[in-house]
Amino acid sequence: MKNYKSHKKEKKLIKSAEQAEKALNMLLQNPKKNLEDGISELLGRLKNPKLDLMLERYPDLLQEYDLKELLSGNLEATDDIEDIKTAGLLSCLHLLIHFCYELKENPNPHDKHFDSLRYILDSISCSRFVHELLSAVISAVGSEYYQKFQQRIQTLDFDLENALELPNDPELEQHIELLAWFALARLFLESVYAYCKSPDQNPNNTT
């Protein structure tokens, strides 16, 4: 997977734990498969057998390396660094989705799922998670398509009506659902990081 460093760093969508809680409540009202299906769709678009293999091997890799190492790509003696890193991102995203739906039923910061969730969050920053996920999406849709998409939403007087028309745009319809999924995944990630890293959700906080 190419590393697309040219795309701009986006402003955060979520700026407080309160916003994060509202966004998560909204997202978690929808079926879990809405977020999970996008991962499968992305894998299908990437058409990378090595990546599929790394996803199968990931539990074994976690026995050999720390998660932070795997997500950083700073590994020695391997030619599959990018595939390992991407497999890690998608595996972590899948687990975060699973944990959040589990925690919806039991919102207790002492729950064991919180420990696993925080382990992932402590292994990669939110901004880098989103950046790397976007790079994977751009690899799937092509940089030319993504630039066209960016130009279109920047030149539109963007509102809900225009947003609903985007899937009917003949130049954008091919990958628009994947881009829409990425927007949801980004909102989900920012919300999880902001909510779970807030002092109110820290079981060690005694104040």
| Largest sheet report | none
Structural class: mainly alpha
Question: Could you give the count of β-strands?
Answer: 0
| Oligomerization | single chain
Cα gyration radius (Å): 18 Å
Instruction: Identify the overall geometry.
Output: globular
Strand content: under 5%
How many structural domains can be distinguished in the coordinates? Answer: 1
Q: What pattern of helices and strands is seen along the backbone?
A: HHHHHHHHHH
Average residue pLDDT: 83
Number of DSSP helical runs: 10
Low-confidence stretches: 1-7, 203-207
Distance between the ends:
45 Å
Proportion of residues in helical segments = 55-70%
Please tell me about this protein's structure:
The protein is an all-alpha fold and 207 residues long. 67% of the residues lie in helices and 0% in strands. It has one domain (17-197). The protein has helices at residues 17-27, 33-46, 49-64, 67-72, 81-105, 112-121, 126-141, 143-155, 160-165, 176-196. The N and C termini lie far apart (45 Å). 26% of the residues are buried.
Which characteristics define this entry?
disordered N terminus; disordered C terminus; 207 residues; 10 helices; single chain
What is the structure about, briefly put?
It contains 10 helices and no strands. The radius of gyration is 18 Å and the shape is globular. The protein is mostly helical and 207 residues long.
